[in-house]
Amino acid sequence: MKNNFENIVKMAGLNLKKLSELSNIPYSTLRFLTTTSPDKWNEEQVNAISKALEIDTDTLMDELNKPVLTPFIKWVGGKRQLLPELLKRVPNEYNDYYEPFIGGGALLLKLVPKKAIINDFNEELSNAWKIVRDNPQELSDNLTECVEKDSKEFYLDYRSADRDGRIVDFSELERATRFIYMNKAGYNGLWRVNQKGQNNVPYGGHKTLNFNVDNIHQVGTYLSSNDITISNGDYMDCIKNAKSGDFVYLDPPYIPVTPTSSFTSYTKNGFGLVQQKEL
To answer: What share of residues in the chain are helix, strand, coil (percent, to 5)?
Structure first.
């Protein structure tokens, strides 16, 4: 099972081949270390890698022992690829963490703060985060069942639940299942709704469908074992209690290039130029 090593190297702007050159450790050995428990690394390896990454050994070991958490959902505008740049701008110390446009939560899941206030205006997305925290097992079971039933017909029937009124009788768990499944099975991993709040994304062209249920459980464990507040509402309400020493990360939806190219229609009310100027 992989540890956090390769991710740490990537966050330092390197890859294993470059690290091999800097540390004088064979590439094959570094590959082996990605699947080896850090407590089995020898002191020489720890010192050489720490020096190459320009971090102290204690920091390296702390990072290696962190769980490898990734977003449980693909979200337009996600920042996984930009994490190395974002991390350069994160303060060395801060109190509470605020993220009012949580989306897939790539930065949150990298930093894993012990106290965080996260929010999204999309009700279905906020609900999904709560279910991952409160009921990851049943959610994983439901998603596994969706994989077995996955087809265009199944997807379109599920999608129509917000048109024929069935969705009002869905439990929060059922809504989270529908949301995560449709985001994965829909075209290009999109979640998009019309002015009536109805999803209008067509079925995707995938051959197979799978969910990383282990990651869902790990994210759920992080959320439930720390002081993480999850809300659904206006971003201003989320950050109104932020104070000096807190870290507020604002990553709002993009302004569309043209009226028909909007990436922001993930809620029926959108997030347009007026909201951008206010922010």
So the answer is: 50, 5, 45
Cα gap 105→101, rounded to integer Å: 9
Q: Find residue 98's DSSP bridge partners.
A: 117, 248
Please provide the DSSP assignment of 108-175 as one string: HHHH--SEEEEE-S-HHHHHHHHHHHH-HHHHHHHHHHHHHH-SHHHHHHHHGGGTSSGGGG--HHHH
User: What distance in Å separates the CA atoms of residue 191 and residue 247, rounded to the nearest whole number?
Assistant: 28
Each residue's pLDDT tens digit, 154-174: 999 999 999 999 999 999 999
Q: Which amino acid is at 96?
A: D
Residue from 108, 138, 137, 136 nearest 120 by CA? 108
What is the tens place of the pLDDT at every residue in 197-208?
899 999 998 889
The residues with which 116 forms a beta bridge, in sequence order, are 97, 228
Assess contact for 186 and 158: CB atoms under 8 A.
no
Instruction: Taking residues 208-232, report their average pLDDT.
Output: 96
Closest CA to 219 of 235, 230, 209: 230
The answer to whether 250 touches 279, Cβ cutoff 8 Å, is yes
